Amino acid sequence: MSVSKKDVEYVSELSRLSFSEEEKENLIGDLNSVLGYVEKLNELDTDDVEIIVNPYYIENKFREDEIEPSMELSSLLSNAPDKLEEYVVVPKIIE
Amino acid sequence: MKLHKLKAHELKSMIKNKEIKVEEVSKEFLNRIHKTDEKIGAYLYKAEEEAINCAKTLDEKIAKGEILEGLGGVPVAIKDNISVKGMQNTCASKILQGYTSPYDATVIKKIRGNNGIILGKLNMDEFAMGSSNENSAFKKVVNPWNKDYVPGGSSGASAAAVAAFETPLSLGTETGGSVRQPASFCSVVGLKPTYGRISRYGVVAFGSTLDQVGTIGRDVEDCALLTQNIAGIDNKDFTTVNIPVQDYTKSLTKDLKGRKIGIPVEYFGEGLDDGVRKTIDEAIKVLRDSGAEVKECSLPLSEYALATYYIISSAEASSNLARFDGIKFGHRSKEAKDAIDIYFKSRSEGFGREVKRRIMLGTYVLSAGYYDAYYNVKRQIIAN
């Protein structure tokens, strides 16, 4: 599986990242070299191995539905790049 | 003996014996930071006012006859990817410049609750991606032992600050060696506890199935002290386990009779420096002399660890870092022409080269057609 320029452009679209032509060329090289390195994993037979996501078996951990105060609105809004009263401002989305 | 050269447990007992005040200890380290950090580059934020205020409160408690349990008034410096209310949390990235944490991470709540003092926020590789600290968007950190050398990473400043006596204790984070490797480079003790031991609530996520908070100090007892004061189950991080937290400082005995220690042969292969090998051999001798049974063992899948790490951590990072979009917090590009363009421009301007490289790699391996070939197979290898 070799990464092409088309792949880089497709993945950068998914990642919401834009690159110059030179950066794209570098990425093709970078990605191919990492993917070439990880190819050694194909030596391993993992057909009968179960997937784990946590070293401890934890499933469906429930907690009480307790009402707690929310974070202070002003401390959250003070981090917004653009705001109006209690709203975060973004450019118009619907035409 | 200079105060800043004392270890955390020594400072704790001096405070307890009323030989020094909490405020004096905090001031000593803040002065030390002023004197040396220009050369080291470890601190991105110095919490002078907060630290002194907090120290005064603790001194008042002592004056009322209270004994400070837990951290006992000792300062701790925090990697800049762990949320401390009212302080910055940049992850050493331009995308989070100007952001102020509106809440405390669980580990910070515990440090405050256990009488610790927050000294400031520490430099790192951007979003914890790197192993030299050269990926910080703000400034580089040097190794205090030799300024031409790197301190390691990604928690390079957490190790360098302890080695340079700019704090007795620090918190780092580890996804694939980011606490232990810089601790080794800076000749201090770094502990990466087992996944599930410490809450990650309030810690900026990188690879969620691997991330863990770690402690750094100048000896094992100091690491034990800090670890036992931040560990435990947390209903805000469902991967934490319900296993009681012991007093780890009390388990540091010299008697290791009945303990079996495995030395994986794979770790002693090609590329191991002679000096490192000698040091490990000396450590093994100490363990043997203390009564432990030391045996060679084999972890045959070790050679696949790095490749597996690259796939899993990058895939998870590409998803975790999707939240940095320039909308609710963090950098928003001034050049954007519409809403979607805010995402593209803010992220492209805000993230550094290595972070973008890993997001691209992660998105590629998770994209249609490659998910099973890469990500799922790697999870199976971890299972093995």
Automatic annotation (TrEMBL), chain A:
Keyword terms, alphabetized: ATP-binding, Ligase, Nucleotide-binding, Protein biosynthesis, Transferase
Q: Where are the transmembrane segments?
A: none
Q: What enzyme class is recorded for this protein?
A: ligase
Q: What is its EC number?
A: 6.3.5.-
Output one GO MF annotation.
ATP binding
- Biological process, per Gene Ontology: glutaminyl-tRNAGln biosynthesis via transamidation; regulation of translational fidelity; translation
Catalysed transformations (reactions): L-aspartyl-tRNA(Asn) + L-glutamine + ATP + H2O = L-asparaginyl-tRNA(Asn) + L-glutamate + ADP + phosphate + 2 H(+); L-glutamyl-tRNA(Gln) + L-glutamine + ATP + H2O = L-glutaminyl-tRNA(Gln) + L-glutamate + ADP + phosphate + H(+)
Top-level taxonomic group: Bacteria
Its annotated function is as follows:
Allows the formation of correctly charged Asn-tRNA(Asn) or Gln-tRNA(Gln) through the transamidation of misacylated Asp-tRNA(Asn) or Glu-tRNA(Gln) in organisms which lack either or both of asparaginyl-tRNA or glutaminyl-tRNA synthetases. The reaction takes place in the presence of glutamine and ATP through an activated phospho-Asp-tRNA(Asn) or phospho-Glu-tRNA(Gln).
Subunit structure as annotated in this protein's UniProt entry: Heterotrimer of A, B and C subunits.
Tell me which family the UniProt entry assigns to this protein.
Answer: Belongs to the GatC family.
Q: What is this protein called?
A: Aspartyl/glutamyl-tRNA(Asn/Gln) amidotransferase subunit C
Q: Which organism is it from?
A: Clostridium pasteurianum DSM 525 = ATCC 6013
